[in-house]
Amino acid sequence: MHRQAFRAGVIGLVFTVGVALFPLSNGALAEEFGGTEPGKWILGFRVGFAPLTQQLSENRSTSVGPLVNFQGLYSVNTWLLVGMMLEWERHGVSLERPDIDLGHQDTVSVLPTMELRPVKLGRFIPYVNMSFGVNINSFGENTPVRVSPSNTFAWRLGWGADYKLNERFALNAEWAYKRNDGHTTGTGGRNDDWNASSFGFLFGGKMFF
To answer: Cβ distance 133 to 107 under 8 Å?
Structure first.
């Protein structure tokens, strides 16, 4: 699963760089095919679900967790937007053998974001975005076992599309990979095998003004 996530990241990175270089090399085509208007603000609210990309840690199982995402972006030109993303997700964590509910991990991700919108196909606007930031992790225990996950470097790569209902509102769907690889401390000492990287599936709406 690590290899699949890495391949997805590489493909997305190559696509992002290619789309970025294309408009820079031909301003006229960027004006014709750009997916946004310069000087516009976009506010988004999406909800969804997030399975982990792999086992959280040895002998630990996790639930598919809820996901909430807020987004604010500003269009620098017809194809490039910059801004901020705030994302929360939660996963229930349990021992596999014996089956014991340990509690849940919460992750709040603060993510400065760049988004590329190379084309606009009528009401349909595809895009790709990339974010770098920090994952703030915490754990709520259901047993006397103490678990304290570290905060980690966040790298997020997303693909999605808006479907514009009118000039102000759009429906949105997005799929993303987010890296959240760290360690825990607590009862039993330090555990370096703790990886909460996840795939996110988001659905919601956006406002343009």
So the answer is: no
Contact between 172 and 22 (Cβ < 8 Å)? no
Query: How many distinct structural domains can be found in the chain?
Result: 1
Residue with tokens 């370096």: 192
Task: Give pLDDT tens digits for 12-67.
Answer: 544 444 544 444 444 433 344 789 999 999 999 999 999 999 999 988 999 999 99
109 or 98, greater pLDDT: 109
Q: Within 13 Å, how many C-alpha atoms sit on residue 96's CB side?
A: 9
Residue 150, pLDDT score: 97
Residues 90-93: contacts with CB under 8 Å, at least 24 apart: 90/65, 90/66, 91/50, 91/52, 91/56, 91/62, 91/63, 91/64, 91/65, 91/196, 91/198, 92/62, 92/63, 92/65, 93/56, 93/60, 93/61, 93/62, 93/139, 93/147
Strand partners, 159: 128, 175
**Which residue, among 120, 122, 125, 37, has the nearest Cα to 81 in the 3D structure?**
37
Tokens standing for residue 118: 């190379």
Residues spanned by the domain of 126? 2-208
The predicted model gives 160-170 an average pLDDT of: 96
Please report, for the domain that includes residue 15, its CATH number: 2.40.160.20
